[in-house]
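task queued by scheduler; priority normal; single chain, no ligands, no partner chains; default sampling; output format set to structure tokens
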Amino acid sequence: MENSQASAATPLSSVWTIRIVILLLLIVIVGGFLYYRSERKVVDLLQLNALQTQRIDEYNRLADQVRNFNAQFGAKFGRISTIENLGDANSDLQKIRDNPNLPGGVDSLMDDFQATLDHVNYLGEKIQNLEKSLGKPHRVKTNETHADIALDYLVHEAGLPKDEAKRILKRTALIWELEPGNAVYNIYYDGVFLTTVTQGEAKSSPLVAQRRVREASSRRIAALEEQLRRLETPDSLPADTSKPTSTETK
């Protein structure tokens, strides 16, 4: 009787052993998968940051090319009206290139412009492909700032104390000009916080917003310098009213 009970217990314990082993294997597999996904997301976000920086540089180069062309040849061959909408810029470019009297030197400038424009578009496509692998972003709402979004992520999703999250943000490069609909991607992994912003569903990308801020700052600086120049010009100084306007009689 005792032997039969012992033999019955043996298969039961074996079943539980197998279940435990299977459970441990599942934990290892799921843990490894999550670890891989986190590492993959870090790599993708780093690539996205690099592409964003490269695209901003190319966009600024494009803006300089347009400004120089408009200044030198715009009155004669037509202006490139804007680069905030790359489709409109490309349309303006094609109209200029259709001019049969376009000199060879100007046509060469158009080739350079087209190459830069194509590269900006190519980088935009690569950014969109990376965004698909990063999953659902945070969509910027009206009056939201990058700092607010990043702080909320670190506290409520990464689980960090608020003071520690604020210290991390002080060491993080943030974009201060956001538009509703911009997409914000955040990840905190192994003590490292990464964040970046893309155009998303907004009308303008962050690189356009940054350029607007830079141009507005340049205009303000130029206006202040002009005011200072006028103040330093003798002709602009107010007349000296300390001397008497009439001579005294003795």
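post-processing summary
- Confidence is low (pLDDT under 50) at residues 25-37, 246-250.
- Residues 136-236 form one domain.
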